[in-house]
Write a structure and sequence with these properties.
The structure is a single chain. By secondary structure, the chain is of the alpha+beta class. About 40% of the residues lie in helices and about 20% in strands. It has helices spanning about 35-40, 40-45, 65-80, 90-110; strands at about 1-10, 15-20, 25-30, 60, 110-115. Strands 1, 2, 3, 4 and 5 form a five-stranded antiparallel beta sheet that branches. A hairpin with a 5-residue loop joins strand 1 (about 1-10) and strand 2. The longest helix has 21 residues, at about 90-110. The N and C termini lie close together (about 10 Å).
Length: about 120
């Protein structure tokens, strides 16, 4: 299985309405990355707090502050690719999808979920 990143808004019934993007822009990593990348000791040592939550649960960023933090954590992780055993290009591609999702969420007054 793969982790996906999606942009969504809550409709009046509280259900998630997704902002459509090309499928390849939804890819956020392999399911195993919950622990081996996002929730890894390397990520914890960088001080990541949102992305590390993926080791325990899906991540919902619903406020502008959370979106800012998610973007900052993605950039920090990208600046330390040499600390991770995964292919740097593979990480970069998927992290860029998360950053792009954050930007789309800001533009459309929406939220981001990584699941």
């Amino acid at each position: 299985m793969s982790l996906l990143v999606n942009v969504f808004k809550r409709n009046p019934n509280g259900e998630m309405d997704f902002v459509e993007v090309e499928h390849h822009k939804e890819l956020a990593g392999f399911e195993s990355w919950r622990n081996t990348l996002y929730g890894s000791p390397q990520s914890e040592s960088l001080g990541l707090s949102l992305l590390t939550q993926l080791s325990q649960a899906d991540l919902y960023c619903t406020t502008p502050t959370e979106l800012d933090r998610l973007s900052q954590e993605c950039l920090l992780l990208l600046n330390h690719l040499d600390q991770y055993p995964q292919d740097p290009d593979s990480i970069t591609y998927r992290i860029q999808n998360i950053i792009d999702a954050v930007e789309l969420a800001r533009e459309t007054d929406a939220c981001v979920v990584i699941w």
